[in-house]
Each structure stands twice: as C-alpha cells, then as structure tokens.
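Regression test case RT-17, inverse folding.

Input:
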C-alpha cells in the first residue's frame, strides 16, 4: 500500500483544489422582453438573438 512520505501542506492541498470552486452562470435580463437568459444564448421565449429572429415560436 502506498503511504505518503510527508504530510501534504495546506498550500499544496489548496493548489490541487483550486478548480473545485462553484462556477457562476452569466445570467442577464433581456432588453426587449425583460426575461432572464444566459448571455450569448438565444432567448427561447422570443427566438431572438443579437437583434435577429433565429426561429419562430409555436
């Protein structure tokens, strides 16, 4: 069984876990409809993206 020769320091442990943080979503309010959506994504309610109609809503 492998056993560590030395204790893992707090700073080394923190470096290893530096990518474990929770990522925040980039949620913005749409200018026209007032709905919240992810930035750089199509508004699913209206079908608009960057001022252009991408798809028609049913």
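Golden output:
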């Amino acid at each position: 069984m492998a056993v560590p020769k030395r204790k893992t320091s707090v700073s080394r442990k923190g470096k290893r876990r530096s990518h474990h943080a929770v990522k925040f979503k980039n949620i913005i309010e749409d200018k026209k409809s007032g709905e919240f959506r992810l930035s750089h994504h199509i508004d699913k309610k209206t079908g608009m993206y960057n001022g252009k109609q991408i798809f028609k809503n049913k």
